[in-house]
Amino acid sequence: MRRAATRARGDAGRLRILLVEDSADYAHLVALALDGMDVRHAASLTAARRLLEGPGPRPDVVLADLHLPDGEGRTVVAGLVAAAGAAPVVGLSGSTDPALVAGAVRAGAAGFVP
C-alpha cells in the first residue's frame, strides 16, 4: 500500500496538497509550514471543487478551512469528500466547538486540526 501511495505522488515524490482557505495570510503561513510539498490553494469551496473536478493531478490530501464564504462545517467537508475521490479531507479551524468537529467527521472528514 505504501508503495502505491508513493507512486501516486507528484514530481520527485512530493506530497500533493489542496489547501482550501479563504484567508490569504493563513494560506501563506500553512504553505510555508508545508515547504517542500506541492501545495495548491483554493479560496472557496466552489474553487476547490473546480480544481478537484478539472484536469490535472489529483491531490494526495485536502486540508480545508471549515468556515468558507460559500460553506460551513459539514457542507464544506461533504462537498470536498464528494469531489476528492480517494484523497482524505482534513478539517482546519480555529474553533474547537465539539459540534463542528463531530459534524465534520460525520460528513466524512478523515481528521481535524484546530
Automatic annotation (TrEMBL):
Keyword Phosphoprotein assigned: yes
Keywords: Phosphoprotein
GO biological process terms on file: phosphorelay signal transduction system
Entry annotated with the keyword Coiled coil: no
Domain of life: Bacteria
SUPFAM superfamilies for this protein: CheY-like
InterPro entries named in the record: CheY-like_superfamily, Sig_transdc_resp-reg_receiver
Record-linked PROSITE patterns: RESPONSE_REGULATORY
Family annotation (CDD domains): REC
Protein name in UniProt: Response regulatory domain-containing protein
Organism: uncultured Solirubrobacteraceae bacterium
Phylogenetic lineage: Bacteria, Bacillati, Actinomycetota, Thermoleophilia, Solirubrobacterales
